[in-house]
Amino acid sequence: MNQASIASTSAHILPPLPYDENALHPVISSNTIGFHYGKHHQGYVDHLNKLIAGTVYAELPLETIIAETANKGDQIEIFRNAAQAWNHTFYWKSLNPKGGGEPPAQLKQKIEASFGSVDQCKEKWAAAATSQFGSGWAWLVQESDQLKIVKTANANSPLTHRMTPLLTIDLWEHAYYLDYQHRRADYVNAVLDKLINWQFAAENLS
Ligand code: MN3
Q: For residue 85, how far is its CA from the centre of ligand 1 (angstroms)?
């Protein structure tokens, strides 16, 4: 096998979107998805492949690259692109055209135990999302038997803090600016009410 074919077989690929680009309309437009998935997410994957070619990270799964480059100052570009590639795939799965509404029963019980009610969970999530200064992510996570809302800056992930991500909302301006401009709270609340994929969260419970 020559070098070129080794590189092409080990390269990370952009996973397919779980729905059509226009499926999240009117909460998130196909215009936003086209740039966000087709340019930003693709860009992180392409940049990652360039950065890891010929390095010790070249053959490793994405999660391993994230774990092994987190908090290593000299590998920060690899970490950022690997984490952004992972975060975006997780974000697309966190949304569903038929999302929102009531969580499945077992998840709902855990939400009520941790936050009081589903509404209180969503309020805390929206408050974290709107108070994140600059770019980042707002997550529903599981830490032992407790559910929590955490926010991370830039590419950072709960994966490297021993927490299990259940759902995420992208807070980078490219996620909402074409549709909502500066109104991040409107984007976050619309996602929580109409798109959030509670079924996916239930599948992620450990
Ligand atoms: Mn993004």
A: 9
Q: Are residues 32 and 84 in the same domain?
A: yes
Query: How confident is the model over 152-202, as pLDDT tens digits?
Result: 999 999 999 999 999 999 999 999 999 999 999 999 999 999 999 999 999
Ligand 1 geometric centre to CA of 157 (Å) = 13
* Residues in contact with 179: Cβ distance below 8 Å, sequence separation at least 6, in sequence order: 28, 29, 31, 32, 187
Q: Are 169 and 129 in contact (CB under 8 A)?
A: yes
Q: Which residue has the tokens 């074919």?
A: 5
Number of domains in the chain: 2
Domain that holds residue 164: 105-204
Q: Are residues 168 and 89 in the same domain?
A: no
Q: Which CATH number belongs to the domain containing residue 75 in this structure?
A: 1.10.287.990
Amino acid at 40: H
112 and 194 part of one domain: yes
**Token pair for residue 23?**
């499926």
32 pLDDT exceeds 80?
yes
Residue 134 pLDDT level (bands cut at 50, 70, 90): very high
Task: Output the CA 80–ligand 1 centroid distance in Å.
Answer: 12
**Closest Cα partner for 121 from 139, 97, 143?**
139
**Are 163 and 116 in a shared domain?**
yes
